[in-house]
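WARN retry 2 of 3 for item q-0093 after timeout on previous attempt; input resubmitted unchanged.
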Amino acid sequence: MVGKHFERFLGGSPGRVLLRLVVLSVVIGFILAAFDLDPAVLVRRVVSGFAHFIEYIANFGMGTLVQLGTYLIYGAVIVVPIWLISRFLSYRRGR
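OK item q-0093 returned
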């Protein structure tokens, strides 16, 4: 028997989750095929776009990256504790 925590993590029993994933995969695959979209091409485009974005940011210079890092740290000081508190509260509520 699968543990309660594992089922909660999955969002249901493993069999039901697997069935849902299979059905959803078939539906999404059908939609992609209908629009003649290849998942490998989509992944390559996303990776390429991300690489171009990083290159674009790097071309701004190191000062911009340092400023971006500063913004990241400032934001994380607020966001991470709020996220942790919300996770703890939702975990306790789920019991």
